[in-house]
Specification:
The chain has helices at 28-35, 45-48, 65-72, 96-113, 146-158, 178-184, 193-207, 240-248, 280-285, 306-309, 319-331; strands spanning 7-10, 40-43, 60-62, 77-79, 85-90, 116-117, 121-122, 129-133, 139-143, 164-170, 211-216, 252-254, 269-273, 291-295, 314-316. It has 2 domains: 7-80 and 254-338, Rossmann fold, CATH 3.40.50; 85-238, Rossmann fold (3-Layer(aba) Sandwich), CATH 3.40.50. By secondary structure, the protein is an alpha/beta fold. Helix content is 30%, strand content 18%. Strands 3-2-1-13-14-15 form a 6-stranded parallel sheet. Strands 5, 6, 7, 10 and 11 form a 5-stranded parallel sheet that branches. The chain is globular, with a radius of gyration of 20 Å.
Amino acid sequence: MSLRPYTAVLIIPTGIGAAIGGYAGDALPVARAMAQMVDCLITHPNVLNGAQLYWPLPNAFYVEGYALDRFAAGEWGLAPTHQNRVGLVLDRAIESELQLRQIQAAEATRATLGLRLTDYVITDAPLGVELRTAPSGATWGTIQNPGSLLRAVDRLITQAGAEAIAVVARFPDDQDSAALQEYRHGQGVDPLAGAEAVISHLVVRTFRVPSAHAPALLPLPLDPQLSPRSAAEEIGFTFLPCVLAGLSRAPQFVTSPKATAIWSHQVDAVIVPATACGGSAILSLSQGQAQVIAVKDNQTKMQVTPEALGIPALQVNSYLEALGAIAAHRAGVSVAALSPHLSSLRPVC
């Protein structure tokens, strides 16, 4: 008799300056390694998106953050799909040349990767993206015209038959800002990430379809001091290819039992930065059977530890150590047995 599939959830929240996963797809190596250790890896665009760089992981589920929260709460199941028809929304604020770059990138994914895309829709008004920074240093943002976005998405779903939605919004250019320079040098918080999450959350919450976002920005000047962790965003005119590739195989969301769907009670392990345990998904999953693995060296701008929240967690120093913890957990081996110091059993009082 075979054991049931082993499922892990890899969470690295966006916009909080994570040392790994806070830049341009720099947590993708972690996901690649982890996907080799498990039967199913559930993670989110912040982990898998790397602008024009991405990596096909057949056993990975690409799940937007709001949907991941609903999954973790047991409200939505994740149903695998062979290929989604992806609809593309373009912000009316994008200049014509930059807009053409996005369309050509989409065409390239059709011709070179064989993705199924619908025709695109341009919003009837500029979305009006605004960026914000919280006192903690985490980033967030707003859009002035959410109705314009929702009308565009509705047209793609009802008229073009889209099953997943990619959004490209025009983000403010602030090439001389200190925050951007720090980010490009591998030291700061991604100034765009928080606002990107707001956009995709709105689409998923309203239409219950997979969605992800790619910002439209003017190319930045060359920087010889550029960090390798930020370099993926410097190699082209658009960040769209990884979004389209991810959405093409993103699971659909279901609210009633389905034979192939995965539900939160089937999650075996959750891996999260040790200082970023306050998100909705980790709070929900920590109340079930899943083993929480907190990674200490992935420092963030947050200071929300498992201890502070009363979450039982296995603390490890690195993702390399987390991989070993997953291997032991999957094998049914107590981590304590792998240490030379094993405490004696004591009577229960």
